[in-house]
C-alpha cells in the first residue's frame, strides 16, 4: 500500500513511518517541520496547502499533522481550528476526489472533557473543553460526512501517549514526570492529582494505525474508535507514584491547585473486538523503565537542548519561541526567509 503520512516527522509520525515500512508499505511524508532538529533540511509542507496533485497515486492517508495538544491549541484558537479542523476536512475532500480509499485521522480521547461517568465508550457524549479538543470534534465530523462508496475514513481517538520516539515529546504526562524525576528528583502534581487519563505507548498507537489500514472497509468505514489499553486508565497521582517507585530518590510534590477540569476514563472494547490481532505490548510501568534507561543512556532525541528548558520537546513552548523570534507568524506560517529553506510550504 502506498501511504501518505502527514506529520510524519512528529512524535507519533516518526514511529509510525518505521512501523509501516516494516510491514511492507511505501511511505511518503508531509510535515511542516516546526520541531525538526536544526539543519535537518527536510521539506517543510503545510497541511493547509495540500492540493489534488499531491495525493495522486496514494492508496491511503494517515493524518497526524496538527497542533498537538491543549497547550498548543490555546496559543491561537483560530489557527487551531484552521489547522486541526478545517484542514482535516479539506484533506479528506481532496483524498476522496483523487481516488484515495483510506483515511485514518488521529483524534483524541480529550474530546470527552470532564466526564462524570466512568468507562466512556464511543457512544458517550463528547464534551470538548479546549480549542484543541473542539478542533478534533470538528475534524471527525468533517471526515465522517465524506464517508461512502470506496472512501473509508476512520477516526482513532487515542489515549494520552507516552514512550520513546525519535521526535521526543516531554510535554506528555508520563514523559514529563519521568523527565522531571530524572533531572531534578522531583515530580510535581497539581492539586490532589485525581484527574484521570487513559494512557497508551506510542508504539502501540502506531501498530493500531497499521491494523486499521489493513482492515476490510466494512470494519472501519465512517467509524470512530477509542484506542488504548484496558486497565491503563490512571489518576495523575497514580502515575506520579509509579515514577517514584521506579526512582526512589524522587519526591512527589503537590503544587498549588488544579484548574484543569479534564478527567475521563475510557473503554476500548470496540477497537479490541474489531481488531483482535492488536495486542498492546507496553504498560505504563514498563514504559517508565524504558524512558529512565533511555535518559541514562543519552538516547532521548533533543535532550541536549534541555539545559535552559525543554527545547523542542515541549511543543507549545517551542512554537512560542518560533513566534517570538519571527521564524513563524502568529498563524504558524513559516516566514518567507524560513520558507525558502523548504521544498514547498
From TrEMBL:
Q: Where is the NAD-dependent epimerase/dehydratase domain?
A: 3-228
- Record InterPro entries: Epimerase_deHydtase, Lipid_A_modif_metabolic_enz, NAD(P)-bd_dom_sf
Q: Locate the coiled-coil region(s) and give their ranges.
A: none
Q: Which Pfam families match?
A: Epimerase (PF01370)
Designated name of the protein: Nucleoside-diphosphate-sugar epimerase
Q: Which organism is it from?
A: Streptomyces lincolnensis
Amino acid at each position: 500500500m502506498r501511504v501518505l503520512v502527514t506529520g510524519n516527522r512528529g512524535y507519533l509520525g516518526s514511529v509510525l513511518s518505521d512501523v509501516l515500512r516494516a510491514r511492507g508499505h511505501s511511505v511518503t511524508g508531509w510535515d511542516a517541520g516546526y520541531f525538526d532538529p536544526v539543519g535537518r533540511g527536510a521539506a517543510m509542507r503545510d497541511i493547509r496547502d495540500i492540493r489534488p496533485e499531491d495525493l495522486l497515486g496514494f492508496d491511503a492517508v494517515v493524518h497526524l499533522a496538527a497542533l498537538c495538544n491543549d497547550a498548543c491549541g490555546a496559543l491561537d484558537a483560530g489557527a487551531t481550528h484552521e489547522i486541526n479542523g478545517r484542514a482535516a476536512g479539506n484533506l479528506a475532500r481532496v483524498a476522496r476526489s483523487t481516488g484515495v480509499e483510506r483515511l485514518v485521522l488521529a483524534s483524541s480521547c480529550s474530546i470527552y472533557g470532564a466526564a462524570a461517568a466512568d468507562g466512556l465508550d464511543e457512544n458517550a457524549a463528547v464534551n470538548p473543553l479546549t480549542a484543541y479538543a473542539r478542533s478534533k470534534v470538528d475534524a471527525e465530523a468533517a471526515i465522517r460526512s465524506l464517508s461512502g462508496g470506496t472512501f473509508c475514513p476512520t477516526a482513532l481517538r487515542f489515549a494520552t501517549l507516552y514512550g520513546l520516539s525519535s521526535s521526543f515529546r516531554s510535554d506528555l504526562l508520563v514523559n514529563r514526570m519521568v523527565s522531571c524525576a530524572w533531572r531534578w528528583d522531583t515530580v510535581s502534581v497539581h492539586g490532589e492529582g485525581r484527574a484521570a487519563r487513559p494512557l497508551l505507548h506510542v508504539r502501540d498507537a502506531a501498530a493500531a494505525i497499521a491494523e486499521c489500514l489493513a482492515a476490510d472497509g466494512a470494519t472501519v468505514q465512517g467509524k470512530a474508535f477509542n484506542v488504548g489499553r484496558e486497565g491503563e486508565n490512571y489518576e495523575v497521582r497514580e502515575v506520579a507514584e509509579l515514577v517514584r517507585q521506579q526512582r526512589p530518590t524522587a519526591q512527589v510534590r503537590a503544587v498549588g491547585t488544579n484548574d484543569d477540569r479534564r478527567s475521563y476514563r475510557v473503554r476500548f472494547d470496540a477497537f479490541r473486538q474489531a481488531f483482535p490481532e492488536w495486542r498492546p505490548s507496553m504498560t505504563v510501568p514498563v514504559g517508565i523503565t524504558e524512558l529512565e534507561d533511555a535518559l541514562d543512556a543519552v538516547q532521548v532525541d533533543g535532550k541536549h537542548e534541555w539545559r535552559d528548558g525543554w527545547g523542542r520537546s515541549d511543543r507549545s513552548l517551542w512554537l512560542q519561541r518560533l513566534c517570538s523570534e519571527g521564524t513563524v507568524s502568529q498563524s504558524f506560517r513559516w516566514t518567507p526567509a524560513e520558507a525558502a529553506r523548504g521544498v514547498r510550504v
